[in-house]
Every structure is written in structure tokens, then in C-alpha cells.
């Protein structure tokens, strides 16, 4: 036992012999280690295993769907000598067990150990002390052809002498399904290890019709199973525990973690093909509640391996799931198949949730929800990926991501599929060729690709360091596991490959820098001797680090059974909190780093019964006021059917709101814009805080329009509030009268009548925004109206309009005279009036898509564009919203701007802009727009070949194959002459930002914090929400109507940014701020209800939310 300086409290603790710590001779000297990892050769390691998978006419990817899924690898100390050993699974090859003899030298003891599983297809391996005798056992999942001898899963019980006895049948887990992996954990906290067995469906994928409710029908052959450990046998309790077990489950990954931090283990199951993933929350009574659709806005489509661990050091576990989308242009355009909008919506409508072809990184919001941030983090595309591992590879205190990827045959090669998916051709080959199947498979391309090693850069971002770290060898990798094989204080890697030797990577971190670490092992009690499910939380200086002991991780694999903490330059840990699987706890204080510690559960104590913290939240949501049960109903218009090269719909950008007292009773009323087919609504407040619908018949007459903005202001100077409604969207042609904006005049009592003016400028245009101000200082309110786009001509710049009021509510377009710079200004989304130069008249600040921020300075009623002199050059973005406020309290006007954000496939910078070319490229009378973005150091069209040829059929003869289209730039596809006559627009930044007015005629741009960039911002408001005298910011957004190949943008739930008074803002998580609204937030409006200030939240296709503060 340790005493003295370590001051250990409530914990039994031992230090492993110093012989095990940095005692092994290195295979190479430190001076020879030029990269963080060294790939060791077979001669040194003695590992001769190779997972060779050779196809035959009878056994191949056509007769067995998972032929190239590879196999796992498991790490465990099978002889308890303090050195981690390795067990490899083979598909056709026998499994092999290698004992670690030190110095990265291993001895093959497979035959004497009796664990080869000869002649049967093995998939995943789980390492756990299943029978609770203190020795790690081996559970092997089997798959392949059903009639194979010894086809059932096998459980090898460790005899303690490096021999094993197979007892799967004795324990009741000799399953005969297409098993992928098993995870052993104590789900019911009864002190022994239960088992979740992940199976793949026997049924062919092509035989399924996507019907609603399919996952509720249990499969008697290949279902996933939850086995409860009843001491000497495992009992299938799947149905009563609430575990799905249907034929549509194509499980490839099962992960265990305490996702809601309640002390009970939860489950995440990743499913391949069309079935969505499953998220099971442990209900603490032997059952689980499946809540994926409630907690995750989107998932991977062909989900593969997964891991769960804390990536941002907030002590809450996050979820990483791999998929198959390639990163580089060449493989992206030849190996990736994206769904079209109709297929995607059909799946959503039938209960298969929102799934997309990319990796996902689900950030735990700590309140029963997650935000998908994979694109922001830069980890969304890693090619055909299997193993997913989260661990600290460089000991800097931040967990990194490792992805094992590659498939021996590119089964989704688009050119191969185009040719050989032809049934007539297939039949002809089979009838006329002696070995037709082999001939077909021979034609499938095969290419090795590098694995990915993402270094955690903090701020939720990652950078691929595989090549830099020495992990970039091209391969076909599948299962992977980490462990400190030489006990030197860093994590080594073992990777199982197909048709090539496995990778054994030695980590050289401890030789290269002065980083520190701590390794924790656990001695449990009862039937869980390894204390699987225990967790440790480290507190040290500014570091908070949390891990859970769940060895079965990634893809078909098991990592070593101890927790490794990288600690950077930290030398002393203030405290460590241990949560044991049975709910008890231990505490350690003042623990020195660079140790291997063993902690004993027997010395733990019950968790203190402390009252749950109830911090005062800034916002409190309450039910909608009586009578205000409005729900926005978006019409079902699909922009992509008309414009195949669009990536985002523009017909669903509402609703906006306006507040004011329309009937002169001193109470705030509320107008909400409607979508096409659903009228806008005016709600009038009563003295008791309830609301009633007013002027309903009047607004229903205009229900065919798409309302995009509204303003309550006194148009005719009679002292009451009139209503202007901007109409636009992308549904209508330019000849449609539904694009006419509407002015409603108030009779003084809240009764409205429509003006006959054709607004804004005497013709039909798609308006986006309206704002009122007395720009000419004549005592009445004039208007700015922005135009969003020209239907059927996306990308063509459109106008802004300055409408002068004659004082009686008659408006005249004076743009040419007063503000000529508004002509063909761009694709306007929003504007605000503000006196930015402090000369006592309102200036115009305008934003839009493919536009820089524009400022027009008011010079005695005439406007001059001064954007560049105000420091706004290079601000081209996809701006959605702008508001003007004095953010820093210095007396001048600053700006908050909502942009597309960075959680996106689109990335832009001044050096690598996103560029759009607009032209009638094939001279057929239809205008196309082609968007190009950088992939590496070259910009390529983002459109896949299918969409490009659909929009411009003439290109079909130029690019007959997908390979011929890949790698083509816009300059390769079109002539210089064609491009020269194109309208060209660029985007240089996608960050939401603030513009701080320096008071001397210019702005300073500052990007908002990382959390602000996780979603497109459509709604902004400001105020002193926490009553500390400092201006705060509230953001809202999201966009769900986007092409499946880009995916939706729904990581936002409203974000409170707390001001510090010095021009900076800090994000406050929802569990602290109290603001949490799911869906597509489109507007915030202040409204007083019963005299109290309230924030009304408008959402697309949803009801309103209301918050007090």
C-alpha cells in the first residue's frame, strides 16, 4: 500500500514492479525513431499470422455478403505476467494466439492453447473474464457459410496455464448466427458479466422492402441478443429487455458506455445498409429504452465500427462511427454512391431515420442529446472504414481518433457496378464462361489505402497525422486494438489486415518527448474480477479526463484491459474519482504521474447520497400561451427536381416573425409568416396573457404564397402599426403573382386591409427580407426590400430595393436614384439599418449568399457603397442573418452575422475559396450553376457525374465512365471561352462572426467560438440575458433540406453566448444555459406576455417555443 505524499483515500492501490515499467530493451534505439510510430517487421515480432482471404467459385463475395469484412484482434494478459498478449482472428486462416515475451517479441502458442478455430470463418474476438476466476477468457464470433463444422461461436475458458477449454455450449452462448462481435458488461449491476451479441442478418439485402415496423419483428435465426449471466449459464433476455432482434439488423459494431452518466451501462449498435443504428439507454430495471431518434439528429448510412469515449475533456462520452465515403476526389467520384433525395426521404418517412454516407462524430450535449460534428472536426471521410478507436496516441491529454480502413475489392466501384449490374450481361457470362463468377470478381478493382490517425487539436477539431506519425502504410485494414505492449507509458497499435501481414506499431512517444501518463488497472469483485465498466475521472490543473473500462471496442476487437491517460506536462494529479461497476466509489489524492497502478474494488465505499446540483439556468422554457398554438407547415416542394446541381433547398427558409401592438391596447401581438399553402397568422394578446387569431380570413386569401419576412411599422402615418409581408421562395416562376409582396393597412383597431400596390418594385420577384427606417429624415418610415434569387436562374445576382414612403403608405422605388449600388447586388438574405458612422442617419448593411458583407453609407439620403473602406473585403460568404447592436458597450454599433458554419462538406478560405460558375453551358436555354471546391490543393466540381450529366446531358459522351470524370477540374470540362462568359461567384469564409466597430470608420471581424460554427445560423438576438450588465448573444439555425451527399446541418439546438464585456463571448452548454430547442430555428422575437419579456422561437415545420430569462 502507498501512503504519505500520495495521500490515497478509500482505495486499495499497488504499483506494478518497476521491472515492467520501461525495463524492456527497445527493438531500436530512440535515435532511430524518426516518427511517432515504428512498424515492426515479422522477423522481430515473430508474428507470422496473415488473414489471407482467397475467393473461389463456391466461396466469394457473391455467395457470402461479408466476404471482405475482415477480422478482429484482441489484447489481453492471458498468463498474468504483466505483458499484453495478442489474439488474431482469421477468416479462412486459423486464429492465432501470441504470448508477449517482452521487447515486442511474441511466441505462437495456438496449438497447445487449443484456440485455433480451424476451418471456420472467425470474425470478432472478445477478451473478458467470463467465469469470474481472475483469468481472461476468449470469446470468438463465427460467421461464413452455415453448414461449416464447428460453426457456432466459441468460448475459450482460460485454465490458468496457457491452455483453454471450449465451453460456449456449457454457458449457453454457442450462437449459430452470422455473428460479428460480442460485448461483455454488467448491464444489471449484479456483479457478473452479461453479454450483448451482435449478429448480421442471414437475409439478402436485395430481398428487403423497406416497410414500417420491420425492426419490431424478431428473427429466430440471426437476431441480436442480450444474454443475462445467471451464474453458470447465459439466458437470452432480449425481448423482455427491449432489444431489437429483427432480420433488418445488419450489425457491424456494438459499443458500451454510460452515455447519460447515471452509473448504468448503455449500448450503441451500428448497422450496415438501410437499417438505422440503435441507441439503448439502460433503465436500471433490467430493460433498455431505444432512443436514437430522440437523441441523434442523424447517423451514418452504412455504419461500420464504432467507439465511445470523451473527445473534448468534459467528462461525458462521445460517439464515433465509421462509414465508407472517400476523402480524395479520385476515389470519391469513382467509389462512392450517394442516395438521391427521393430515396432518402422514403427511408425517413418509413422510420429509418436520417442516415448519410459519411462518418459521424456525435458530441454529447450532456442533456440526453448529441450534436453531429464530424464535418467540423474533419473526420467525416476516411474511405471504406472499419475499426474506430478513440485514445490518446501522443500523450498530450487529448484523445485522438484512429481509423482502420480499406477493402480488398472495391465493391462499390461505380464503373464496375455500371457494367456488371446489368442482369442480361451477368446471365450471359454465367452461361458462356466456365468460371464466370471468378471472372467477375477478378474485374473488381483493388487498391490499398492508408489508415487515418487524427490528432486531437482541441476546440473539437482533428488533423490527420497518419503519414507524419508513421501510420500511413497503404493496406486493407479491419480490426484494430491498442495497448501498451512494452509497458513504456504510451499506447502501441495492433491492426489485422486482409491478404497482408498485420501491423504491429510501436509507439515512440515516450522516447521523443517529456509527456507524462498514468495507467490504471482494476481488481474487481465477484463475477467481474476485471471490474469491466469501472470509470476513472482525473482532475489535474486545468485537465479533466474521463475514461471507462470497456475493452471490447472498435470493430470486432478488444483493447487491453487497463485505462491509459496521457497527461502532457502534468506531473501531479490533484485527485482521481473511481466509479466501480456496482455503483460504489473510491477517491485518490495527490497522485504522481508516470505510474502503473492497480486499484481494488474491495476498498470502495458507497457513493455518497449528495443532492443533485440545480444551478440557476439563464433561460426557462414554458408552454405556449393559451391560444398561441401555431405550427409552421412547410410545403413539400423539392428544389433538386428542378435544379439537379443545387445542394441546399431555398424554398424552406422561413418563418420569420414580427411583434408589435396592432390594436392599441398596450399589449404585444405577434405575426408569423406562413409557407406556401399555409397562411401567415396574426395573434393578438389579451389582458390575461392569452392570444386569439385575428384577420384570419384576410390572410387565408394569400395562402398560396411563400412568406419570407414581415415587418410591423406605421406605413401611412396614422399612429398604428401596419404590416408588410415579403413573399418569395423558390417554388414559383418569375411570372407568378404569388411573388408579390403585400402591404396591409391597419384601421387603428387591429383590422387590416390589403393595399393594391405591386411591391416591392412593380414586378414579380422573390423577396427575402424587409426592414423599415426613415432614411431620408422626412418623418415617415421607408423600406428596404431584398431579393433572394431569380427562380430557375440560381446564381444570377438580383436587386435590393429602396422604397420611399410618401407619408401615406404609398411606396416608390428610388433605388436607381438614391442607391444605384443595389442593382444586381447579389442573392440577398437579410439587411439591417444602423448608424454605423454615427452621423445621425441610418446606413444600410446587407448580407447574402455568395456575397461579401455590404455597407452603404447614408449621405443626406443617398447611399454610397463603402464596404472595402470599412474593412469588409474578403467577407464573401453564405450569410443568412445580420443584426446591429452595441455589443461592447462603447456607444457605437456593431454587428452579429450568421453564416453557413464550418460543420459542412463545404470549406472556404481566401486561399481556397468555394467558386460557382453560372452559365448556359450547353446552350439549350437553361442556366446551370456549377460549384467547385478544393479537395487538397486542387478545386473540382462538387457535383457527382450522375447529377452533372443529368443537368448537362451533352457531357455524357465526354465522360462515359466515372473514372474519366474523376480528377477533372472545371477548366478541363469547359473551354476558357465558356468560363470567361460565365458569372463567377466565390465564398471566402463560412464562419459566423461579429463585426466590431472601431469608431473610426472600419470594422474588425472576429469569428464566433467553435460551438457557433457547428450549424448554419438563421436566427440571432442579443440582450443581457443573465442580468450581469453585459451584452450576450443567442444563436439559432439548422438546415434539414439538403442533398444526402452533403447531409443535413442539424447540430444546433440554440446557443447562448455569454459576453465578457471585452468583445468576446463564451458558449454556455444547454445543460447550464437552459436553452435547448431542436429543429430548424428561423427567428427570435422579443414579446412581452403578462408584462414579462419572453423570447419567441420560430422553427421551420414546427411549433413555437417560448423562453423567459
Largest sheet, described in full?
6 strands, antiparallel
Decide which structural class fits the backbone: mainly beta
Number of helices: 22
- Tell me the radius of gyration: 32 Å
Task: Describe this entry's structure for a reader.
10% of the residues lie in helices and 36% in strands. With 1109 residues, it is mainly β. Strands 1, 36, 37, 41, 42 and 44 form a six-stranded antiparallel beta sheet that branches. The radius of gyration is 32 Å and the shape is globular. The model is unreliable at 1-32 (pLDDT under 50).
Features:
disordered N terminus; 36% strand; single chain; 1109 residues; six-stranded antiparallel β-sheet; five-stranded antiparallel β-sheet
Short description:
With 1109 residues, the protein is mainly β. Helix content is 10%, strand content 36%.
Helix/strand layout:
Layout: E1 8-9, E2 12-15, E3 37-39, H1 42-45, E4 73-76, E5 85-88, E6 96-100, E7 106-108, H2 110-113, E8 121-128, E9 137-143, E10 154-158, E11 164-166, H3 168-171, E12 178-185, E13 194-200, E14 225-229, E15 234-236, H4 238-241, E16 251-257, E17 266-271, E18 278-282, E19 288-290, H5 292-295, E20 299-300, E21 306-309, E22 318-321, H6 329-335, H7 341-349, E23 355-356, E24 360-364, E25 370-372, H8 374-377, E26 385-391, E27 400-405, H9 414-420, H10 423-432, H11 436-442, E28 449-450, E29 452-458, E30 461-464, H12 466-469, E31 474-475, E32 477-483, E33 492-497, E34 503-507, H13 509-512, E35 516-523, E36 535-540, E37 543-548, E38 552-553, E39 557-558, E40 563-568, E41 572-579, E42 584-592, E43 595-600, E44 605-606, E45 620-622, H14 639-642, E46 657-660, E47 669-672, E48 681-685, E49 691-694, H15 696-700, E50 707-713, E51 722-727, E52 742-746, E53 752-754, E54 766-773, E55 782-789, E56 800-805, E57 811-813, H16 815-818, E58 827-834, E59 843-851, E60 854-859, E61 862-865, E62 877-878, E63 881-885, E64 894-898, ...
Parallel strand pairs: 20-23, 35-43
Antiparallel strand pairs: 1-42, 2-43, 3-34, 4-5, 5-6, 6-7, 8-9, 9-10, 10-11, 12-13, 13-14, 14-15, 16-17, 17-18, 18-19, 21-22, 22-24, 24-25, 26-27, 27-29, 28-31, 29-30, 32-33, 33-34, 35-40, 36-37, 36-41, 38-39, 41-42, 42-44, 45-77, 46-47, 47-48, 48-49, 50-51, 51-52, 52-53, 54-55, 55-56, 56-57, ...
Amino acid at each position: 500500500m502507498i501512503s504519505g505524499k500520495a495521500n490515497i483515500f478509500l482505495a486499495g492501490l499497488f504499483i506494478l514492479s518497476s521491472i515492467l515499467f520501461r525495463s524492456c530493451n527497445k527493438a531500436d534505439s530512440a535515435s532511430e525513431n524518426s516518427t511517432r510510430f515504428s512498424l515492426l517487421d515479422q522477423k522481430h515480432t515473430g508474428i507470422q499470422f496473415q488473414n489471407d482471404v482467397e475467393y473461389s467459385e463456391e466461396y466469394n463475395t457473391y455467395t457470402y455478403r461479408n466476404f471482405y469484412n475482415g477480422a478482429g484482434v484482441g489484447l489481453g494478459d492471458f498468463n498474468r505476467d504483466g505483458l499484453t498478449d495478442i489474439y488474431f482472428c482469421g477468416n479462412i486462416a486459423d486464429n492465432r494466439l501470441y504470448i508477449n515475451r517482452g521487447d515486442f517479441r511474441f511466441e505462437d502458442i495456438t496449438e497447445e492453447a487449443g484456440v485455433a478455430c480451424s476451418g471456420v470463418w472467425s470474425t470478432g474476438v472478445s477478451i473478458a473474464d467470463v467465469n469470474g476466476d481472475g483469468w481472461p477468457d476468449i470469446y470468438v464470433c463465427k460467421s461464413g457459410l452455415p453448414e461449416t463444422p464447428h460453426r457456432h461461436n466459441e468460448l475459450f475458458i482460460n485454465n490458468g496455464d496457457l491452455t483453454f477449454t471450449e465451453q460456449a455450449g456449457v454457458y449457453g452462448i454457442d450462437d449459430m448466427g452470422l455473428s460479428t462481435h460480442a460485448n461483455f458488461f454488467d448491464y444489471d449491476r449484479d456483479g457478473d458479466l452479461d453479454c450483448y451479441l451482435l449478429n448480421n442478418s442471414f437475409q439478402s439485402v436485395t430481398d428487403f422492402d423497406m416497410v414500417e415496423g420491420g425492426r419490431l419483428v424478431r428473427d429466430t435465426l440471426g437476431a441480436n441478443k442480450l444474454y443475462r449471466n445467471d451464474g453458470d449459464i447465459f439466458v437470452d433476455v432480449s425481448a423482455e429487455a427491449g432489444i431489437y432482434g429483427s432480420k433488418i439488423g445488419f450489425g457491424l459494431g456494438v459499443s458500451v458506455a454510460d452515455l447519460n452518466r447515471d452509473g448504468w451501462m448503455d449500448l450503441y449498435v451500428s448497422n450496415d445498409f438501410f437499417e438505422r443504428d440503435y441507441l439503448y439507454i439502460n433503465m436500471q430495471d433490467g430493460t433498455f429504452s431505444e432512443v436514437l431518434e430522440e437523441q441523434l439528429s442523424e447517423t451514418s448510412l452504412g455504419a461500420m465500427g464504432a467507439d465511445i469515449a470523451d473527445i473534448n475533456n468534459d467528462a461525458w462520452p462521445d460517439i464515433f462511427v465509421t462509414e465508407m465515403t472517400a476523402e480524395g476526389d479520385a476515389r470519391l467520384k469513382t467509389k462512392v454512391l450517394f442516395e438521391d433525395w427521393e430515396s432518402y426521404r422514403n427511408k425517413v418517412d418509413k422510420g429509418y431515420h436520417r442516415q448519410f454516407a459519411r462518418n459521424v462524430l456525435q458530441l454529447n450535449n450532456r442533456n440526453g442529446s448529441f450534436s453531429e460534428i464530424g464535418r467540423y472536426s474533419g473526420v467525416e471521410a476516411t474511405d471504406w472504414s472499419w475499426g474506430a478507436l478513440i485514445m490518446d496516441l501522443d500523450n498530450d491529454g487529448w484523445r485522438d481518433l484512429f481509423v482502420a480502413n480499406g477493402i480488398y475489392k472495391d465493391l462499390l466501384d461505380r464503373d464496375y457496378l455500371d457494367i456488371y449490374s446489368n442482369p442480361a450481361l451477368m446471365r450471359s457470362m454465367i452461361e458462356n464462361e466456365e468460371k464466370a463468377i471468378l471472372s467477375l470478381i477478378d474485374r473488381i478493382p483493388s487498391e490499398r489505402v492508408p489508415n487515418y490517425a487524427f490528432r486531437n487539436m482541441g476546440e473539437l477539431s482533428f488533423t490527420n497525422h497518419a503519414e507524419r506519425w508513421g501510420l500511413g502504410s497503404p493496406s486493407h485494414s479491419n480490426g484494430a486494438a491498442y495497448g501498451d505492449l512494452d509497458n513504456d507509458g504510451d499506447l502501441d497499435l495492433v491492426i489485422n489486415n486482409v491478404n497482408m501481414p498485420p501491423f504491429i506499431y510501436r509507439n515512440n512517444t515516450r522516447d521523443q518527448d517529456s509527456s507524462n501518463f498514468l495507467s490504471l488497472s482494476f481488481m474487481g469483485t465477484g463475477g467481474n474480477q476485471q471490474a469491466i465498466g469501472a470509470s476513472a475521472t482525473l482532475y489535474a490543473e486545468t485537465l479533466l479526463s474521463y475514461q471507462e473500462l470497456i475493452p471490447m471496442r472498435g470493430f470486432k476487437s478488444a483493447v487491453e484491459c487497463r485505462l491509459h491517460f496521457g497527461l502532457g506536462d502534468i506531473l501531479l494529479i490533484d485527485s482521481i474519482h473511481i466509479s466501480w461497476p456496482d455503483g460504489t466509489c473510491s477517491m485518490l489524492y495527490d497522485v504522481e504521474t508516470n505510474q502503473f497502478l492497480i486499484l481494488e474494488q474491495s476498498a470502495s465505499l458507497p457513493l455518497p447520497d449528495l443532492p443533485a446540483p440545480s444551478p440557476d439556468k439563464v433561460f426557462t422554457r414554458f408552454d405556449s400561451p393559451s391560444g398561441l398554438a401555431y405550427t409552421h407547415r412547410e410545403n413539400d416542394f423539392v428544389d433538386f427536381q428542378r435544379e439537379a446541381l443545387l445542394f441546399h433547398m431555398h424554398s424552406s427558409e422561413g418563418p420569420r416573425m414580427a411583434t408589435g401592438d396592432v390594436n392599441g391596447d398596450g399589449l404585444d401581438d405577434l405575426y408569423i409568416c406562413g409557407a406556401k399553402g399555409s397562411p401567415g397568422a396574426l395573434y393578438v394578446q389579451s389582458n390575461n396573457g392569452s392570444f386569439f387569431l385575428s384577420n384570419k380570413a384576410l390572410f387565408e386569401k394569400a395562402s398560396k404564397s411563400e412568406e419570407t419576412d414581415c415587418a410591423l411599422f406605421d406605413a401611412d402615418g396614422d399612429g398604428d402599426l401596419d404590416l408588410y409581408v415579403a413573399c418569395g421562395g423558390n417554388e414559383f416562376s418569375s411570372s407568378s403573382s404569388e411573388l408579390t409582396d403585400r402591404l396591409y393597412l391597419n384601421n387603428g383597431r387591429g383590422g387590416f386591409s390589403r393595399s393594391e400596390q405591386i411591391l416591392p418594385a412593380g414586378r414579380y420577384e422573390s423577396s427575402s427580407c424587409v426592414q423599415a427606417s426613415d432614411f431620408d429624415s422626412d418623418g415617415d418610415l421607408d423600406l428596404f426590400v431584398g431579393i433572394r434569387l431569380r427562380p430557375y436562374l440560381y446564381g444570377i445576382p438580383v436587386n435590393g430595393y429602396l422604397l420611399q414612403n410618401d407619408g401615406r403608405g404609398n411606396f416608390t422605388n428610388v433605388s436607381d436614384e438614391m442607391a444605384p449600388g443595389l442593382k444586381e447586388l447579389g442573392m440577398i438574405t437579410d439587411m439591417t439599418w444602423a448608424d454605423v458612422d454615427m452621423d445621425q442617419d441610418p446606413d444600410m448593411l446587407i448580407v447574402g449568399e455568395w456575397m461579401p458583407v455590404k455597407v452603404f453609407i447614408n449621405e443626406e439620403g443617398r447611399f454610397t457603397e463603402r464596404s472595402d473602406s470599412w474593412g469588409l473585403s474578403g467577407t464573401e460568404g453564405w450569410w443568412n442573418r445580420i443584426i446591429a447592436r452595441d455589443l461592447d458597450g462603447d456607444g457605437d454599433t456593431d454587428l452579429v452575422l450568421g453564416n453557413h458554419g464550418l460543420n459542412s462538406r463545404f470549406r472556404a478560405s481566401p486561399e481556397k475559396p468555394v467558386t460557382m460558375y453560372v452559365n448556359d453551358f450547353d446552350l439549350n436555354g437553361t442556366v446551370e450553376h456549377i460549384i467547385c471546391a478544393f479537395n487538397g490543393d486542387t478545386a473540382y466540381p462538387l457535383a457527382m457525374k450522375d447529377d452533372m450529366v443529368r443537368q448537362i446531358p451533352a457531357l455524357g459522351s465526354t465522360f462515359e465512365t466515372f473514372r474519366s470524370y474523376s480528377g477533372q477540374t472545371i477548366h478541363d470540362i469547359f473551354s476558357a471561352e465558356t468560363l470567361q462568359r460565365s458569372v463567377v461567384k466565390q465564398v471566402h469564409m463560412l464562419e459566423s462572426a461579429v463585426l466590431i466597430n472601431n469608431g473610426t470608420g472600419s470594422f474588425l471581424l472576429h469569428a464566433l467560438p467553435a460551438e457557433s460554427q457547428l450549424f448554419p445560423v438563421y436566427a440571432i438576438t442579443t440582450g443581457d440575458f443573465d442580468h450581469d450588465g453585459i451584452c450576450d448573444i443567442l444563436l439559432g439555425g439548422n438546415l434539414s433540406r439538403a442533398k444526402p451527399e452533403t447531409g443535413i446541418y442539424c447540430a444546433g439546438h440554440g446557443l447562448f453566448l455569454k459576453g465578457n464585456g471585452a468583445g468576446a463571448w463564451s458558449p454556455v452548454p444547454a445543460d447550464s444555459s437552459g436553452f435547448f430547442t431542436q429543429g430548424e430555428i428561423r427567428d427570435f422575437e422579443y414579446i412581452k406576455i403578462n408584462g414579462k419579456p419572453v423570447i419567441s422561437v420560430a422553427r421551420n415545420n414546427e411549433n413555437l417555443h417560448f423562453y423567459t430569462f
